[in-house]
Specification:
This protein has 496 residues and is mostly helical. It contains 16 helices and 4 strands. The protein is 68% helix and 2% strand. It starts with a strand and ends with a helix.
Length: 496
Protein backbone atom coordinates (compact mmCIF):
# COMPACT_ATOMS: atom_id res chain seq x y z
CA UNK A 1 0.00 0.00 0.00
CA UNK A 2 1.33 3.43 -0.88
CA UNK A 3 0.87 4.81 2.59
CA UNK A 4 2.73 2.17 4.57
CA UNK A 5 6.25 1.68 5.79
CA UNK A 6 6.74 -1.89 4.71
CA UNK A 7 9.37 -4.48 5.37
CA UNK A 8 12.49 -4.20 3.24
CA UNK A 9 12.56 -7.89 2.35
CA UNK A 10 15.57 -9.87 1.13
CA UNK A 11 18.56 -7.81 0.05
CA UNK A 12 20.02 -8.13 -3.44
CA UNK A 13 22.97 -6.83 -5.43
CA UNK A 14 22.96 -3.57 -7.45
CA UNK A 15 22.91 -5.64 -10.65
CA UNK A 16 19.70 -7.41 -9.59
CA UNK A 17 18.27 -4.04 -8.63
CA UNK A 18 18.90 -2.75 -12.14
CA UNK A 19 17.14 -5.80 -13.60
CA UNK A 20 14.11 -5.23 -11.37
CA UNK A 21 13.91 -1.56 -12.35
CA UNK A 22 14.26 -2.49 -16.04
CA UNK A 23 11.44 -5.03 -15.75
CA UNK A 24 9.25 -2.50 -13.94
CA UNK A 25 9.70 0.21 -16.58
CA UNK A 26 9.56 -1.93 -19.74
CA UNK A 27 5.97 -3.15 -19.88
CA UNK A 28 2.71 -2.34 -21.60
CA UNK A 29 3.85 1.09 -22.80
CA UNK A 30 6.52 -0.46 -25.00
CA UNK A 31 3.87 -2.38 -26.95
CA UNK A 32 2.13 0.89 -27.94
CA UNK A 33 5.31 2.85 -28.68
CA UNK A 34 5.97 1.79 -32.32
CA UNK A 35 2.55 3.01 -33.46
CA UNK A 36 2.99 6.30 -31.60
CA UNK A 37 6.44 6.71 -33.19
CA UNK A 38 5.05 6.06 -36.65
CA UNK A 39 2.26 8.60 -36.21
CA UNK A 40 4.41 11.40 -34.75
CA UNK A 41 7.38 10.97 -37.10
CA UNK A 42 10.84 9.56 -36.54
CA UNK A 43 12.65 12.85 -35.79
CA UNK A 44 10.05 14.20 -33.36
CA UNK A 45 9.87 10.81 -31.64
CA UNK A 46 13.65 10.61 -31.31
CA UNK A 47 13.95 14.06 -29.74
CA UNK A 48 10.94 13.67 -27.46
CA UNK A 49 11.81 10.23 -26.07
CA UNK A 50 15.37 11.35 -25.25
CA UNK A 51 14.02 14.46 -23.53
CA UNK A 52 11.37 12.57 -21.56
CA UNK A 53 13.85 9.84 -20.62
CA UNK A 54 16.17 12.53 -19.22
CA UNK A 55 13.36 14.11 -17.19
CA UNK A 56 12.28 10.71 -15.87
CA UNK A 57 15.84 9.95 -14.74
CA UNK A 58 16.01 13.35 -13.03
CA UNK A 59 12.80 12.83 -11.08
CA UNK A 60 13.92 9.29 -10.19
CA UNK A 61 16.96 10.81 -8.45
CA UNK A 62 14.56 13.23 -6.73
CA UNK A 63 12.59 10.30 -5.31
CA UNK A 64 15.78 8.55 -4.12
CA UNK A 65 16.91 11.74 -2.36
CA UNK A 66 13.50 12.10 -0.72
CA UNK A 67 13.69 8.48 0.45
CA UNK A 68 17.03 9.21 2.13
CA UNK A 69 15.67 12.29 3.90
CA UNK A 70 12.60 10.31 4.98
CA UNK A 71 14.87 7.64 6.47
CA UNK A 72 16.89 10.33 8.26
CA UNK A 73 13.70 11.87 9.63
CA UNK A 74 12.43 8.51 10.91
CA UNK A 75 15.83 7.71 12.46
CA UNK A 76 16.00 11.10 14.17
CA UNK A 77 12.41 10.92 15.43
CA UNK A 78 13.12 7.47 16.87
CA UNK A 79 16.08 8.82 18.82
CA UNK A 80 14.01 11.75 20.06
CA UNK A 81 11.38 9.34 21.34
CA UNK A 82 14.04 7.27 23.06
CA UNK A 83 15.34 10.41 24.75
CA UNK A 84 11.84 11.24 25.96
CA UNK A 85 11.45 7.76 27.43
CA UNK A 86 14.84 8.02 29.12
CA UNK A 87 13.79 11.30 30.75
CA UNK A 88 11.93 9.30 33.42
CA UNK A 89 15.12 7.63 34.71
CA UNK A 90 17.38 8.87 37.50
CA UNK A 91 19.05 12.25 37.10
CA UNK A 92 22.56 10.84 36.84
CA UNK A 93 21.61 8.30 34.18
CA UNK A 94 19.58 10.93 32.39
CA UNK A 95 22.57 13.27 32.25
CA UNK A 96 24.84 10.51 30.89
CA UNK A 97 22.33 9.50 28.23
CA UNK A 98 21.81 13.09 27.13
CA UNK A 99 25.57 13.51 26.73
CA UNK A 100 25.69 10.26 24.79
CA UNK A 101 22.87 11.41 22.49
CA UNK A 102 24.63 14.70 21.83
CA UNK A 103 27.85 12.87 21.02
CA UNK A 104 25.94 10.53 18.70
CA UNK A 105 24.32 13.52 17.03
CA UNK A 106 27.73 15.06 16.32
CA UNK A 107 28.92 11.75 14.89
CA UNK A 108 25.91 11.50 12.60
CA UNK A 109 26.31 15.02 11.28
CA UNK A 110 30.10 14.85 11.00
CA UNK A 111 31.90 15.14 7.62
CA UNK A 112 32.15 12.06 5.45
CA UNK A 113 35.84 11.57 6.26
CA UNK A 114 35.14 11.37 10.00
CA UNK A 115 35.70 7.76 11.19
CA UNK A 116 32.57 7.93 13.35
CA UNK A 117 30.50 8.74 10.32
CA UNK A 118 31.43 5.43 8.72
CA UNK A 119 29.69 3.39 11.38
CA UNK A 120 26.27 4.89 10.85
CA UNK A 121 24.92 7.39 8.34
CA UNK A 122 21.84 9.41 9.02
CA UNK A 123 20.77 9.17 5.37
CA UNK A 124 21.19 5.44 4.83
CA UNK A 125 18.15 4.04 2.99
CA UNK A 126 17.33 1.05 5.17
CA UNK A 127 13.58 1.50 5.79
CA UNK A 128 11.24 1.07 2.85
CA UNK A 129 9.18 4.26 2.98
CA UNK A 130 6.53 4.22 0.25
CA UNK A 131 5.55 7.37 -1.63
CA UNK A 132 2.30 7.71 0.28
CA UNK A 133 4.20 7.82 3.57
CA UNK A 134 6.62 10.38 2.14
CA UNK A 135 3.63 12.47 1.04
CA UNK A 136 2.25 12.39 4.59
CA UNK A 137 5.69 13.40 5.93
CA UNK A 138 6.41 16.33 3.65
CA UNK A 139 3.04 17.50 2.26
CA UNK A 140 0.23 19.35 3.97
CA UNK A 141 -3.30 17.93 3.93
CA UNK A 142 -4.15 19.38 0.52
CA UNK A 143 -0.94 18.04 -1.03
CA UNK A 144 -1.57 14.65 0.54
CA UNK A 145 -5.05 14.43 -0.98
CA UNK A 146 -3.80 15.58 -4.39
CA UNK A 147 -1.06 12.94 -4.33
CA UNK A 148 -3.47 10.12 -3.58
CA UNK A 149 -5.96 11.42 -6.12
CA UNK A 150 -3.22 11.43 -8.75
CA UNK A 151 -2.00 7.91 -8.01
CA UNK A 152 -5.55 6.53 -7.83
CA UNK A 153 -6.39 8.00 -11.25
CA UNK A 154 -3.17 6.56 -12.66
CA UNK A 155 -3.91 3.09 -11.28
CA UNK A 156 -7.46 3.26 -12.68
CA UNK A 157 -5.98 4.05 -16.09
CA UNK A 158 -3.47 1.23 -15.68
CA UNK A 159 -6.23 -1.27 -14.96
CA UNK A 160 -8.31 -0.03 -17.89
CA UNK A 161 -5.31 -0.51 -20.21
CA UNK A 162 -4.77 -4.06 -18.95
CA UNK A 163 -8.48 -4.86 -19.12
CA UNK A 164 -8.60 -3.75 -22.77
CA UNK A 165 -5.28 -5.23 -23.93
CA UNK A 166 -5.94 -8.85 -22.92
CA UNK A 167 -9.41 -9.24 -24.52
CA UNK A 168 -8.29 -7.34 -27.62
CA UNK A 169 -5.33 -9.69 -28.10
CA UNK A 170 -7.56 -12.74 -27.66
CA UNK A 171 -10.14 -11.29 -30.06
CA UNK A 172 -7.60 -10.59 -32.78
CA UNK A 173 -6.05 -14.04 -32.42
CA UNK A 174 -9.25 -16.08 -32.46
CA UNK A 175 -11.44 -14.11 -34.87
CA UNK A 176 -10.94 -15.52 -38.38
CA UNK A 177 -9.97 -12.91 -40.96
CA UNK A 178 -11.53 -13.66 -44.34
CA UNK A 179 -9.36 -11.68 -46.73
CA UNK A 180 -7.94 -12.49 -50.13
CA UNK A 181 -4.21 -11.94 -50.06
CA UNK A 182 -3.68 -11.51 -53.80
CA UNK A 183 -5.94 -8.48 -54.32
CA UNK A 184 -4.81 -4.89 -54.03
CA UNK A 185 -4.81 -3.35 -50.54
CA UNK A 186 -7.06 -0.53 -51.76
CA UNK A 187 -9.76 -3.10 -52.48
CA UNK A 188 -9.41 -4.94 -49.18
CA UNK A 189 -12.20 -4.61 -46.67
CA UNK A 190 -10.87 -2.92 -43.54
CA UNK A 191 -11.70 -4.69 -40.30
CA UNK A 192 -13.97 -2.77 -37.96
CA UNK A 193 -15.78 -3.59 -34.73
CA UNK A 194 -18.85 -4.51 -36.78
CA UNK A 195 -16.93 -7.00 -38.95
CA UNK A 196 -18.05 -10.60 -38.40
CA UNK A 197 -16.03 -12.76 -36.04
CA UNK A 198 -17.77 -16.04 -35.28
CA UNK A 199 -20.27 -16.55 -38.05
CA UNK A 200 -22.75 -13.81 -38.81
CA UNK A 201 -24.20 -13.45 -35.32
CA UNK A 202 -21.12 -12.36 -33.37
CA UNK A 203 -19.09 -9.41 -34.65
CA UNK A 204 -15.62 -8.39 -33.50
CA UNK A 205 -16.88 -5.92 -30.92
CA UNK A 206 -19.14 -8.51 -29.31
CA UNK A 207 -16.29 -11.04 -29.30
CA UNK A 208 -14.09 -8.46 -27.56
CA UNK A 209 -16.77 -7.92 -24.92
CA UNK A 210 -17.21 -11.66 -24.41
CA UNK A 211 -13.50 -11.97 -23.70
CA UNK A 212 -13.62 -8.89 -21.48
CA UNK A 213 -16.49 -10.39 -19.47
CA UNK A 214 -14.56 -13.64 -19.08
CA UNK A 215 -11.43 -11.70 -18.10
CA UNK A 216 -13.42 -9.77 -15.47
CA UNK A 217 -15.01 -12.90 -14.01
CA UNK A 218 -11.71 -14.77 -13.83
CA UNK A 219 -9.42 -12.06 -12.46
CA UNK A 220 -11.86 -9.60 -10.87
CA UNK A 221 -12.51 -11.73 -7.74
CA UNK A 222 -8.83 -11.49 -6.75
CA UNK A 223 -9.44 -7.89 -5.65
CA UNK A 224 -11.63 -9.21 -2.81
CA UNK A 225 -8.62 -11.00 -1.32
CA UNK A 226 -4.93 -10.38 -0.72
CA UNK A 227 -2.46 -11.91 -3.14
CA UNK A 228 1.22 -11.26 -3.68
CA UNK A 229 3.31 -11.70 -6.77
CA UNK A 230 5.65 -14.59 -6.02
CA UNK A 231 9.31 -14.53 -6.91
CA UNK A 232 8.97 -17.39 -9.40
CA UNK A 233 5.99 -15.78 -11.15
CA UNK A 234 7.99 -12.55 -11.44
CA UNK A 235 10.94 -14.41 -12.94
CA UNK A 236 8.65 -16.21 -15.40
CA UNK A 237 6.97 -13.03 -16.62
CA UNK A 238 10.35 -11.29 -16.86
CA UNK A 239 11.75 -14.13 -18.96
CA UNK A 240 8.71 -14.04 -21.28
CA UNK A 241 9.08 -10.29 -21.66
CA UNK A 242 12.75 -10.52 -22.64
CA UNK A 243 12.14 -13.38 -25.07
CA UNK A 244 9.14 -11.68 -26.73
CA UNK A 245 10.80 -8.28 -27.23
CA UNK A 246 14.02 -9.87 -28.46
CA UNK A 247 12.12 -11.98 -31.02
CA UNK A 248 10.21 -8.94 -32.30
CA UNK A 249 13.41 -6.90 -32.73
CA UNK A 250 15.24 -9.73 -34.52
CA UNK A 251 12.34 -10.48 -36.86
CA UNK A 252 11.87 -6.81 -37.78
CA UNK A 253 15.59 -6.25 -38.32
CA UNK A 254 15.82 -9.37 -40.46
CA UNK A 255 13.05 -8.16 -42.76
CA UNK A 256 14.61 -4.70 -43.04
CA UNK A 257 18.11 -6.04 -43.83
CA UNK A 258 16.61 -8.30 -46.51
CA UNK A 259 15.13 -5.26 -48.23
CA UNK A 260 11.53 -6.15 -47.39
CA UNK A 261 10.84 -3.28 -45.02
CA UNK A 262 7.68 -1.40 -45.99
CA UNK A 263 7.84 1.48 -43.52
CA UNK A 264 8.41 5.03 -44.74
CA UNK A 265 7.70 7.15 -41.64
CA UNK A 266 7.37 10.91 -41.89
CA UNK A 267 9.86 13.16 -40.18
CA UNK A 268 7.35 15.03 -38.01
CA UNK A 269 3.62 15.24 -37.38
CA UNK A 270 2.74 17.75 -34.67
CA UNK A 271 -0.85 16.60 -34.27
CA UNK A 272 0.33 13.22 -32.98
CA UNK A 273 2.82 14.63 -30.45
CA UNK A 274 0.39 14.74 -27.46
CA UNK A 275 -0.35 11.05 -27.77
CA UNK A 276 3.36 10.27 -28.16
CA UNK A 277 4.02 12.33 -25.04
CA UNK A 278 1.53 10.26 -23.03
CA UNK A 279 2.91 6.97 -24.34
CA UNK A 280 6.52 7.95 -23.53
CA UNK A 281 5.63 9.18 -20.04
CA UNK A 282 3.74 5.95 -19.37
CA UNK A 283 6.65 3.90 -20.75
CA UNK A 284 9.19 5.48 -18.37
CA UNK A 285 7.02 5.23 -15.27
CA UNK A 286 8.77 3.78 -12.23
CA UNK A 287 8.75 6.52 -9.59
CA UNK A 288 5.75 5.19 -7.67
CA UNK A 289 7.45 1.80 -7.07
CA UNK A 290 11.03 2.94 -6.45
CA UNK A 291 10.99 2.45 -2.65
CA UNK A 292 10.26 -1.26 -2.96
CA UNK A 293 13.04 -1.70 -5.55
CA UNK A 294 15.81 0.59 -4.31
CA UNK A 295 15.67 -0.05 -0.55
CA UNK A 296 16.71 -3.75 -0.72
CA UNK A 297 19.82 -2.97 -2.81
CA UNK A 298 22.85 -3.84 -0.67
CA UNK A 299 25.42 -1.35 -1.90
CA UNK A 300 23.94 2.05 -2.79
CA UNK A 301 27.25 3.88 -3.09
CA UNK A 302 26.93 4.65 -6.82
CA UNK A 303 23.15 4.48 -7.01
CA UNK A 304 22.65 7.51 -9.29
CA UNK A 305 25.22 6.21 -11.76
CA UNK A 306 23.62 2.76 -11.82
CA UNK A 307 20.15 4.20 -12.36
CA UNK A 308 21.51 6.38 -15.18
CA UNK A 309 22.98 3.30 -16.86
CA UNK A 310 19.62 1.52 -16.50
CA UNK A 311 17.75 4.42 -18.11
CA UNK A 312 20.31 4.55 -20.92
CA UNK A 313 19.82 0.84 -21.67
CA UNK A 314 16.03 1.26 -21.59
CA UNK A 315 16.22 4.28 -23.93
CA UNK A 316 18.31 2.34 -26.45
CA UNK A 317 15.95 -0.62 -26.14
CA UNK A 318 12.89 1.56 -26.85
CA UNK A 319 14.59 3.20 -29.82
CA UNK A 320 15.61 -0.13 -31.35
CA UNK A 321 12.15 -1.65 -30.83
CA UNK A 322 10.29 1.37 -32.21
CA UNK A 323 12.57 2.23 -35.13
CA UNK A 324 12.71 -1.36 -36.37
CA UNK A 325 8.92 -1.38 -36.15
CA UNK A 326 8.26 1.84 -38.07
CA UNK A 327 10.70 0.90 -40.85
CA UNK A 328 9.52 -2.71 -41.05
CA UNK A 329 5.75 -2.11 -41.25
CA UNK A 330 3.67 0.50 -43.03
CA UNK A 331 2.58 3.29 -40.73
CA UNK A 332 -1.11 2.57 -41.27
CA UNK A 333 -0.57 -1.13 -40.55
CA UNK A 334 1.13 -0.81 -37.15
CA UNK A 335 -1.24 -2.10 -34.46
CA UNK A 336 -1.76 -0.38 -31.13
CA UNK A 337 -0.59 -3.67 -29.60
CA UNK A 338 2.66 -4.17 -31.52
CA UNK A 339 2.73 -7.96 -31.02
CA UNK A 340 -0.31 -8.33 -33.30
CA UNK A 341 1.77 -7.18 -36.28
CA UNK A 342 3.57 -10.52 -36.19
CA UNK A 343 0.38 -12.47 -36.90
CA UNK A 344 -0.26 -11.27 -40.44
CA UNK A 345 -1.51 -14.26 -42.46
CA UNK A 346 -1.03 -12.69 -45.92
CA UNK A 347 2.51 -11.45 -45.43
CA UNK A 348 3.82 -13.41 -42.44
CA UNK A 349 7.05 -12.09 -40.97
CA UNK A 350 7.94 -15.61 -39.86
CA UNK A 351 6.94 -19.05 -41.11
CA UNK A 352 6.93 -20.44 -37.57
CA UNK A 353 3.31 -20.29 -36.42
CA UNK A 354 4.39 -21.09 -32.86
CA UNK A 355 6.36 -17.84 -32.68
CA UNK A 356 3.44 -15.84 -34.08
CA UNK A 357 1.02 -17.23 -31.52
CA UNK A 358 3.54 -16.80 -28.71
CA UNK A 359 3.92 -13.11 -29.55
CA UNK A 360 0.16 -12.71 -29.96
CA UNK A 361 -0.51 -14.28 -26.56
CA UNK A 362 2.39 -12.53 -24.83
CA UNK A 363 0.25 -9.63 -23.51
CA UNK A 364 -2.38 -12.10 -22.31
CA UNK A 365 0.02 -13.98 -20.04
CA UNK A 366 2.06 -11.07 -18.68
CA UNK A 367 -0.76 -8.56 -18.17
CA UNK A 368 -3.07 -11.13 -16.61
CA UNK A 369 -0.53 -11.88 -13.89
CA UNK A 370 -0.09 -8.16 -13.09
CA UNK A 371 -3.78 -7.23 -13.10
CA UNK A 372 -4.66 -8.59 -9.61
CA UNK A 373 -1.56 -6.99 -8.06
CA UNK A 374 -2.38 -3.54 -9.45
CA UNK A 375 -6.05 -3.93 -8.51
CA UNK A 376 -5.18 -4.71 -4.89
CA UNK A 377 -2.73 -1.78 -4.82
CA UNK A 378 -5.51 0.52 -6.05
CA UNK A 379 -7.96 -0.90 -3.50
CA UNK A 380 -5.54 -0.22 -0.65
CA UNK A 381 -4.89 3.32 -1.87
CA UNK A 382 -8.63 4.00 -2.07
CA UNK A 383 -8.98 2.87 1.54
CA UNK A 384 -6.19 5.22 2.56
CA UNK A 385 -7.66 8.13 0.61
CA UNK A 386 -11.03 7.90 2.37
CA UNK A 387 -9.76 6.81 5.79
CA UNK A 388 -10.31 8.92 8.89
CA UNK A 389 -8.27 8.65 12.08
CA UNK A 390 -9.93 6.48 14.68
CA UNK A 391 -12.47 5.12 12.19
CA UNK A 392 -12.76 1.46 11.21
CA UNK A 393 -14.55 0.51 8.01
CA UNK A 394 -17.61 -1.74 8.43
CA UNK A 395 -17.21 -5.21 6.93
CA UNK A 396 -19.46 -4.52 3.92
CA UNK A 397 -17.56 -1.32 3.10
CA UNK A 398 -14.14 -2.91 3.56
CA UNK A 399 -14.75 -6.25 1.85
CA UNK A 400 -17.46 -5.43 -0.72
CA UNK A 401 -17.67 -1.71 -1.50
CA UNK A 402 -13.97 -0.92 -1.98
CA UNK A 403 -13.27 -4.00 -4.15
CA UNK A 404 -16.23 -3.09 -6.37
CA UNK A 405 -15.14 0.55 -6.46
CA UNK A 406 -11.75 -0.72 -7.61
CA UNK A 407 -12.81 -3.11 -10.35
CA UNK A 408 -16.01 -1.67 -11.86
CA UNK A 409 -14.78 1.69 -13.32
CA UNK A 410 -11.81 0.32 -15.35
CA UNK A 411 -13.90 -2.60 -16.64
CA UNK A 412 -16.61 -0.12 -17.65
CA UNK A 413 -14.03 2.00 -19.51
CA UNK A 414 -12.69 -1.11 -21.26
CA UNK A 415 -16.25 -2.02 -22.31
CA UNK A 416 -16.60 1.46 -23.79
CA UNK A 417 -13.36 1.50 -25.80
CA UNK A 418 -10.59 -0.84 -26.86
CA UNK A 419 -8.37 1.97 -28.19
CA UNK A 420 -5.18 1.23 -26.26
CA UNK A 421 -3.23 4.08 -27.81
CA UNK A 422 -5.85 6.52 -26.50
CA UNK A 423 -5.95 4.93 -23.02
CA UNK A 424 -2.17 4.91 -22.67
CA UNK A 425 -1.92 8.47 -24.01
CA UNK A 426 -4.50 9.90 -21.61
CA UNK A 427 -3.19 7.97 -18.59
CA UNK A 428 0.39 9.02 -19.27
CA UNK A 429 -0.39 12.63 -20.21
CA UNK A 430 -2.30 13.49 -17.04
CA UNK A 431 -1.96 11.22 -14.01
CA UNK A 432 1.34 9.83 -15.32
CA UNK A 433 2.82 13.30 -15.77
CA UNK A 434 1.70 14.19 -12.26
CA UNK A 435 3.36 11.16 -10.67
CA UNK A 436 6.47 11.27 -12.83
CA UNK A 437 7.16 15.04 -12.79
CA UNK A 438 5.15 17.12 -10.34
CA UNK A 439 5.00 14.80 -7.31
CA UNK A 440 8.77 14.00 -7.18
CA UNK A 441 9.65 17.68 -7.66
CA UNK A 442 7.35 18.79 -4.83
CA UNK A 443 8.57 15.94 -2.62
CA UNK A 444 12.26 16.74 -3.01
CA UNK A 445 11.61 20.47 -2.55
CA UNK A 446 9.77 19.85 0.73
CA UNK A 447 12.29 17.22 1.87
CA UNK A 448 15.24 19.57 1.33
CA UNK A 449 13.44 22.27 3.26
CA UNK A 450 12.82 19.95 6.22
CA UNK A 451 16.37 18.62 6.04
CA UNK A 452 17.72 22.14 6.56
CA UNK A 453 15.35 22.70 9.49
CA UNK A 454 16.09 19.42 11.30
CA UNK A 455 19.79 18.93 10.60
CA UNK A 456 21.08 22.32 9.54
CA UNK A 457 22.38 23.56 6.16
CA UNK A 458 25.71 21.79 6.64
CA UNK A 459 24.24 18.31 6.82
CA UNK A 460 25.63 16.09 4.05
CA UNK A 461 23.25 13.72 2.25
CA UNK A 462 25.20 11.16 0.24
CA UNK A 463 22.09 10.37 -1.84
CA UNK A 464 21.51 13.96 -2.95
CA UNK A 465 20.38 14.14 -6.57
CA UNK A 466 22.99 15.24 -9.14
CA UNK A 467 20.40 17.90 -9.99
CA UNK A 468 20.70 19.50 -6.56
CA UNK A 469 20.25 23.10 -7.69
CA UNK A 470 16.77 24.53 -7.10
CA UNK A 471 16.63 25.51 -10.77
CA UNK A 472 15.99 21.90 -11.76
CA UNK A 473 13.04 21.58 -9.38
CA UNK A 474 11.45 24.75 -10.75
CA UNK A 475 12.20 23.62 -14.29
CA UNK A 476 10.42 20.29 -13.74
CA UNK A 477 7.41 22.12 -12.28
CA UNK A 478 7.20 24.38 -15.32
CA UNK A 479 7.83 21.50 -17.75
CA UNK A 480 5.18 19.24 -16.19
CA UNK A 481 2.58 22.01 -16.03
CA UNK A 482 3.17 23.25 -19.58
CA UNK A 483 3.15 19.69 -20.91
CA UNK A 484 -0.27 18.99 -19.41
CA UNK A 485 -1.61 22.33 -20.73
CA UNK A 486 -0.19 21.68 -24.21
CA UNK A 487 -1.70 18.19 -24.37
CA UNK A 488 -5.10 19.47 -23.21
CA UNK A 489 -5.18 22.37 -25.68
CA UNK A 490 -4.07 20.11 -28.52
CA UNK A 491 -6.77 17.56 -27.75
CA UNK A 492 -9.40 20.33 -27.75
CA UNK A 493 -8.17 21.84 -31.01
CA UNK A 494 -7.93 18.44 -32.69
CA UNK A 495 -11.50 17.53 -31.77
CA UNK A 496 -12.85 20.92 -32.83
Amino acid sequence: MAGDITETGSLYSPFMGLIYIFNLIVGTGALTMPRAFGAAGWLVSLVLIILLGFFSFMTTTFVVETMSVANARLRWKTREKQNEDDAHTEDVIEEEEENQSEEERRALLAPVNDPKRRRVDLYDITERVEMGQMASMFFNKVGWYLFYLCIVIYLYGDLAIYAAAVPKSLRDITCPVNITCNIKPSKQINLTNSSPCWGTTVNRQNAYRVYLAAFSLLLGPFVFFNVQKTKYLQLLTSLMRWVAFTIMIILAMTRITHGKGEGHPVMASVTSVPNLFGVCVYSFMCQHSLPSLVTPIKNKRHLSLLVFFDFLVILVFYLVLSFTGIFCFKNMDIKDIYTLNFMDKCDPITSAQEISYFLGLFPVFTLSTNFPIIAITLRNNLKTLFHRDGYTYPWIIDRIFFPLLTIVPPIAVAFGTDDLEFLVGVTGSYAGAGIQYLVPAFLVYSARKEQRILFGPGSINKHTSPFRHSFWVYFVWVWGTLSIIFVTVNHILTKS
